[in-house]
Amino acid sequence: ELAKLQGTFEDLETKMKEEIAKGDVRLAQAGGRIKVDLVDRILFDVGDAGVTERGAGVLSRLGAVLAAVEDKKIQVSGHTDDLPISDRLRDRYPTNWELASARALNIVRFLEEKAKVPGRRLVAAAYGPWEPISSNRTAAGRARNRRIEIVLTPALAPAPIDAKAAPPKKAAAPAKKTAAKKRTR
Question: What whole-number distance in Å separates Cα of residue 12 and Cα of residue 72?
Answer without folding.
Answer: 15
